[in-house]
Each structure stands twice: as C-alpha cells, then as structure tokens.
From TrEMBL:
<dbReference type="GO" id="GO:0009083">
    <property type="term" value="P:branched-chain amino acid catabolic process"/>
</dbReference>
<keyword id="KW-0479">Metal-binding</keyword>
<dbReference type="GO" id="GO:0003863">
    <property type="term" value="F:branched-chain 2-oxo acid dehydrogenase activity"/>
</dbReference>
<keyword id="KW-0560">Oxidoreductase</keyword>
<dbReference type="InterPro" id="IPR050771">
    <property type="entry name" value="Alpha-ketoacid_DH_E1_comp"/>
</dbReference>
<dbReference type="GO" id="GO:0046872">
    <property type="term" value="F:metal ion binding"/>
</dbReference>
<feature type="domain" description="Dehydrogenase E1 component">
    <location>
        <begin position="145"/>
        <end position="440"/>
    </location>
</feature>
<dbReference type="InterPro" id="IPR029061">
    <property type="entry name" value="THDP-binding"/>
</dbReference>
<dbReference type="InterPro" id="IPR001017">
    <property type="entry name" value="DH_E1"/>
</dbReference>
<keyword id="KW-0496">Mitochondrion</keyword>
<protein>
    <recommendedName>
        <fullName>3-methyl-2-oxobutanoate dehydrogenase (2-methylpropanoyl-transferring)</fullName>
        <ecNumber>1.2.4.4</ecNumber>
    </recommendedName>
</protein>
<dbReference type="GO" id="GO:0005759">
    <property type="term" value="C:mitochondrial matrix"/>
</dbReference>
<dbReference type="Pfam" id="PF00676">
    <property type="entry name" value="E1_dh"/>
</dbReference>
<keyword id="KW-0630">Potassium</keyword>
<keyword id="KW-0809">Transit peptide</keyword>
<comment type="subunit">
    <text>Heterotetramer of alpha and beta chains.</text>
</comment>
<comment type="similarity">
    <text>Belongs to the BCKDHA family.</text>
</comment>
Length: 481
C-alpha cells in the first residue's frame, strides 16, 4: 500500500481541516484563502455538524467543503415553457417533467457508443481528425518509450521463466495506452495505477535499474522487498504504489483529487482500472464520490476484453464502461486504446476539463491484452490463438504509431536497430546488478507500519527467527537474519 501517500495526503487534509476549524460553537468559520468557494456543509451529512477528534478530545464542529457548482441546477429545465413548468415536479436536485406515457428507459441504445480515433490501422491520419499537435521531440520520445516497454516486458518475462524472479505481468498490446496517456499529463498529476501501467512510470523517468530492483525485491527496492514483483511505486514521480486488491485505488483517487482541489493545485488525479475492476464496489464508490465532490480526477479504464479468463460479455451487460459515466453524472469518452494519438488527444482534453472545470472524467480505452494475464496464467486455455494473433499483428499499437512517426520523416530503420540494441543491453545490465544486490534484512519485514510494533508482531518476528535457525537450509542464506 502507498504508505507515503496516505501519510502526506492525510496530513494535507488534516491541515485543511485544522485551518478551517475556528472552534466557536460547533460551526467553523472559513479561514482559507478562497473562502467564497466553501460552504458550511459537513462532509458526512449536508448541513449537520460532524464529530472530529481534536487535541482537546472529541469536538463538535463542522467540516467545510466546496460548494457544488452544478448540483442544484443541472436537472433544471432551462428551456421549458410556462406550461411545461406547470407539468413539472419541483424535486430536490432539480425539476422533473411529468408525462402521461409509461416509458421504461431502454437498457441499451440501438447504436454502440462510437470509438474516437485519429490514426487508421495503418497509422495514417484520418481526415478531419480532432487532435492536438504533437512535436517531433514528443512523438519520438513516445515511440522510444513504447519500444522500451516492449523490450522490458520480454526481458523480465524471460527472467521469470528462468526462475530468477517469482512473478511478472506484461503490458503487451497496451503500450499506446501506457505511454500516450502519460505523455498527456504532467508530473504534478497523481497516478493511481491498477498494475498494467508501468509505462506511465517509465515515461516519468523511473529507470530500468529501479524497475529491476523492485522485481528482484532487493535492498534498493523502495518497497524493501515486501511486495510481489511489478508492484512499483515512486514518491518522486507521484506514482502511488500498486496494491493488489483491485479498484481500491478509485475511492483513493477521488480523495486525492479533492485534496488537490482544496489546495487549489493545477493538477488532477488519474486512476487506471481494467474492465474487470469495474465490477468491484470500489469502482462505483469512487465514481460517485468524485462526481458529487466535483473532484478533478480522470478515471482511465483499459477495456482489454478479458479479466484473467473472464470475457467482457460475462463481466457486464452494458455497452462497455463508457456508458456508466452518465449514470454517475460524469462526462465520458470511448477511445481507441491502440491509437497513441487518440489516447494522447483524449487525455489532454480530459485533463484540461478536469482541472479547469473541476470535475471527474471517465475514459474507456478499447484495447486487447495480448499476453497472458500474468506468468501464473495460460490464456490459450480459454481463448483462440487467432484472436490473439489478430490483435498482436493486425492491430498492434506500436507498429501503428511507428508508421505515423516514420511517415513524418522522424524515424529511420537505423534508429530502430540502435534503440532496440541499446535497451536490451541496458536491461541485461540492470538485471545483473539487481540480482547481485543484497536482499533487505529480515527486520524490514516488520518495519514501517507502526511506530512501535505491537506485541503480536514482535512475537511473530521472534518465531520467524527461531524457525529460520531451526531450518537454515529452507531459507535463503543471503537474507541477513
Ligand atoms: C478485489 C480483488 N478481487 C480479485 C482479485 C484477483 N484478480 C487479480 S487480477 C484480476 C483480473 C482483473 O482484470 P482487469 O481489471 O480487466 O485487468 P487486466 O488484468 O485485464 O488488465 C483479478 C480478478 C484481486 N486482485 N482483487
Ligand atoms: Mg481486462
């Protein structure tokens, strides 16, 4: 879990609460700079004060929150005529017209929501495409990072097969989503990944050595070897540490985004999630919170067709994920996740709206998980090889982007060969160094959660040491006890 984030973020929120508390008769006077955008509403229940622990014990006070800019008006019938007005119900949240017709809203529309793209399958620009200019420098960096991600996946996957690391999970087929979404953001935007987005971290400058250290769980790993491989995190790069329980990052993203809003930051939170993750309760809690709190967060759903062996047709009956946004009052778009320019354009626009209009945005990117779910899976047991080949060859996001970059005269065959050779060498070197680096000492297994480990943890540590001493051959000799 992202301990560093939880600590610094809760401190920010606590500071805000403290700033706003003026301890006079329960309700607090706003003591923040932009007081006009605060209302005296509690976070837990409108208009009612909530109990907050304070240094003087539990005090009755109110927590202020930003006033909604749209909630009271969004359902109003702005264009309704006098007679319509008479036929409407003045309901909390806005007026609702009456109708004598008993119409059930259809479970689906006749047409599926179209998918925004800029490049065709051959990497040629589609006429009248709506996309921001991408400079040669950015385009070449994007392509180079996509290739780096590909080679990193191949190399670590091989290392797992050789028994050098315990687990791995590739992003094959989703390189454009990884790199193009990262390119459209700034370093100040806080990333809350699911797990198939290491390219975002790569884009931000996490080195191949840092990736290798985490996968090998050595002393240089920021998580001190306590997480499975691929659970990266970086405070420096505003990348919240990956946690295995799916979708937990979504309500956290709503909270982080709200914190950015309170701090008046020109940044947003970006939470990635898979199609399978949208079935978790946290997905719905996260979206609803973000909508109601008008939090600047982008929910980026990678719909790659599969959640391990569960096909999307068994996951939901809606037209994918994009339509779920409206149910929560969130602006949404469906984009071709294998088109780097379309992803870049959609995320750039989403970021702009999220920050300047202070609202959440939902993006559904259609793509395909070309690899197995992870090294613990064999996807040929539940899907056709033809299907995999179609996406791997016919709809490959890296080939497609390369065609566009090359058609601009920005990339040559020679650059391609040099880049691939150089990345391969760097990776082999990083793996060798990571493998030779000492593992974290055993004490680290029990550190960093509590200031003073509770008695049950202390007992566990003693028991573990005794067990290792009794069975030294069953434990790695290079871990210092
Ligand atoms: C709360 C929770 N339930 C189940 C799992 C087991 N699990 C790990 S990955 C996964 C599939 C997720 O699929 P999806 O969200 O589509 O992401 P993808 O792997 O396709 O990128 C499941 C069910 C988990 N880690 N956490
Ligand atoms: Mg999936």
């Amino acid at each position: 879990m992202a301990i560093w984030w939880a600590r610094s973020s809760s401190r920010t929120i606590a500071n805000h609460i403290r700033k706003c508390m003026n301890y006079k008769g329960g309700f607090m006077e706003g003591a923040v700079a932009n007081q006009s955008c605060w209302s005296l509403l509690s976070l837990s229940h409108r208009g009612r004060p909530v109990s907050m622990p304070s240094s003087r014990g539990t005090a009755l006070c109110s927590v202020q929150r930003f006033k909604s800019t749209v909630a009271e008006t969004q359902l109003d019938l702005s264009s309704s005529s006098e007679s319509d007005e008479e036929q409407s119900l003045d309901f909390p949240g806005g007026k609702v017209t009456y109708t004598p017709e008993m119409n059930f809203i259809s479970e689906s529309s006749n047409k599926r929501v179209p998918c925004f793209r800029v490049l065709n399958d051959d990497g040629q620009l589609i006429m009248d495409s709506d996309f921001p200019q991408v400079s040669k420098e950015v385009a070449v960096k994007m392509y180079s990072k996509m290739v780096t991600l590909q080679i990193m996946d191949i190399t670590f996957y091989e290392a797992q097969r050789q028994g050098r690391i315990s687990f791995y999970l590739t992003s094959a087929g989703e390189e454009a989503i990884n790199i193009a979404s990262a390119a459209a953001l700034t370093e100040q935007d806080i990333i809350l990944p699911q797990y198939r987005e290491p390219g975002v971290l790569l884009w931000r400058g996490f080195t191949l050595q840092e990736f290798a250290n985490q996968c090998f769980g050595n002393k240089a790993d920021y998580g001190k070897g306590r997480q499975m491989p691929i659970h990266y995190g970086s405070k420096q790069h505003n990348f919240v540490t990956i946690s295995s329980p799916i979708a937990t990052q979504l309500p956290q993203a709503a909270g982080i985004a709200y914190s950015l809003k309170m701090d008046n930051k020109k940044a947003c939170a970006v939470a990635y999630i898979g199609d399978g993750g949208t079935s978790e309760g946290d997905f719905h809690a996260g979206l609803n919170f973000a909508a109601v709190m008008e939090a600047p967060v982008i929910f980026f759903c990678r719909n790659n067709g599969w959640a391990i062996s569960t096909h999307v047709s068994e996951q939901f009956r809606s037209d994918g994920i994009v339509v779920k946004g409206q149910g929560y009052g969130i602006r949404s778009i469906r984009v071709d996740g294998n088109d780097a320019l379309a992803v870049y354009a959609a995320v750039s626009a989403a970021r702009e709206m999220a920050i300047h209009e202070q609202r959440p945005i939902l993006i559904e990117a259609l793509t395909y998980r070309v690899g197995h779910h992870s090294t613990s899976d064999d996807s040929t047991k539940y899907r056709e090889l033809d299907e995999i080949d179609y996406w791997k060859m016919g709809r490959n996001p890296v080939h497609r982007f390369r065609n566009w970059v090359q058609s601009n005269g920005w990339w040559t065959e020679q650059q391609e060969t040099e880049l691939r050779n150089s990345i391969r060498k760097q990776l082999l070197q990083a793996i060798q160094v990571a493998e030779k680096t000492e593992n974290p000492p055993l004490t680290e297994l029990f550190s960093d959660v509590y200031d003073h480990p509770p008695s049950n943890l202390q007992e566990q540590e003693i028991q573990l040491r005794q067990t290792i001493n009794r069975h030294p051959n069953d434990y790695p000799c290079h871990v210092s006890v």
